[in-house]
Amino acid sequence: MLGIGLKPADESRITTLDEEELDTMIFARKAIAIIWVGVFALLSSCEDVDGVREAVSARSTVQQTNYQKAIALQNTPSDRVITLINQERNKAGLSSLNKSNKLMAAAAQRAKEQAILFSHTRPDGSEFWTVDPSVVYGECLSKGYGSMTVVNAWMNSTTHRAVILDPSFVTIGIGIFEKDGITYIALEVGY
User: Where are the extended beta strands (E) located within the chain?
Assistant: First the structure.
């Protein structure tokens, strides 16, 4: 189960994209990646197209293997989630989000609250961002996913992907809470 939340639209720094705009943005970024591969092939002066494909594929495989090893060495599950999110942002040409202690505390609180009420409304009836209105501007939630699978689930959801790839966000906090064998993860982002 996944959930997304954004602070009310009257907040001037919130960027909203409809599904078509987001798909267009993703298509453009994929097109740029394809063009880059073509430029790489031309610059390498390689007449063997299959050789270029194999070289690019081998490089990608090595990078992915090294990346997986780096993730496994992260100290905490929250750090692993942040690393995976920043990888997705970097693939999209965006800067990495900076870990914020205030957002980490807010996310930890929100993850605990999800075990009571899985919603962007807090158990006391207030909106999610009231956990710390000075730093929380966007939220993604999950129930039943682990730290190594949640980012993939969020990236496969148009609305969650929009929050993760919003270029105006610069800070992040991840909270993970487990109760009765169910893992709850809260992602909080800010400016």
Answer: 2-6, 98-99, 138-143, 171-179, 182-190
